[in-house]
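so im writing up the methods section and need the Choline-sulfatase record in one place, dumping it here so i stop losing it
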Amino acid sequence: MKQQFLKMFVLSLVFTVSGICQTTTQKNVKSQNPNILFIAVDDLRPELNFYGANHIKSPNLDKLAGESLIFERAYCNVPVCGASRASLMTGARPTRNRFIDAHVKKDEDYPEAISLPLLLKQNGYQTISNGKIYHYGNDDAKAWDEIWQSSRRWRYAFEENFELRQKTGRGLPVEIADVHDSIYMDGKLALKVITDLQKLKQSNQPFFLTMGVAKPHLPFNAPKKYWDLYDRNEIELPESYVQPETTPKQAFHNFGELRQYEKIPKKGDLPEELAKELIHGYYACVSYIDAQIGLVLDELKRLNLDENTIVILWGDHGWNLGDHKLWCKHINFETALRTPLIIKVPGKTTGQKTDAITEYIDIYPTLAELAGLKSPNSVEGKSFVPIINGQKSDKNWAVSKFKDGVTLIKDQLFYTEWTDDAGVAYARMLFDHKTDPLEIDNLAEKPSYKNTVEALSKELREKWGEDFLK
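--- predicted struct ---
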């Protein structure tokens, strides 16, 4: 009897030790595969405190930036949402026939590419798409364990404004409603992401959890308390509120996206009062989404998931708030190309800043490397993990494209060509940010810059991608 009891005790001890070892192994495996919280913000320009601005109230983004690596010279590869997102998620450059406009689908433009979420899913990650990640919610469906989007009904709080949108296609460009944050889409999004975090806390799988924030995209709708943070009398039009004759006409557009909204004139400059109302609304929306992102980051910390979770936040492109008398994106000025990009890597980032030129196609190989994975051959970007590790970047250029316009960013020079299907340029502009950060004085046609233009034109073709003209 004693021998049998002893035998059972030993077996029990073996199973217990085995279970402890197995649990420890699982924890070790998970610690080697960090979670990723992937926050994509629509139309967010780098007009934030940690980029030198001091008028937009965004305490949660400021706090996250203080724990992150801040990229001061990050650029989207194409300044329009659908194309920018597809390019980023595949790590592939836009070409003349790939990733063209807002209505791009990754599955149609580059179906053979293994996207970032698909790579992670294939390697044991739980992948959840919340909100706007691709332009279309069902795009790249095989990459996700779950896809969730809030009803578009909640773009507006007032029923009459929603009905107006249904009738006109766009509706009013602003709405001020004294309602709870959760009435609008991004408030509902925050609650969904928080619920996901609580569920994922119980899982042994690493996760790739996304938060696709809708604002500050038009319409500029946010709860009244965020509008009340700003005094419209203190809002001014941008210093670059001009369109010099030396700049090619191809550089400008009629901001058709905004023109579709009610009470917006169909042509010409906006009345100053209306322009300031739109800027006010943009600021209010940034403060609103800041609060929603803050709720998610607080829950991440409360659950003790922050210690093993990479947090990356990016805006899909820049946005014009009257810069060059333009609104929206869809252009090759820096205001549409430069973007906010910050990444928090536990144990490595503490609010450092880098002026290394970074492209959005670099995000894919970076996150793959941090997850211990090799990027597929279709990825054209370059990992910026060395920068995270404190090393100096050896890359000093980026290429961005919108339709016929292709821009080479080289050190402080911004060179753009508008080209035909054969790659022949029919218009050019060149700005030197050392002396002209607002991009007012086009140098491309000045005789003294002829050699510079020829060298940049050649380099542009070397760097815009092997498949660019295909």
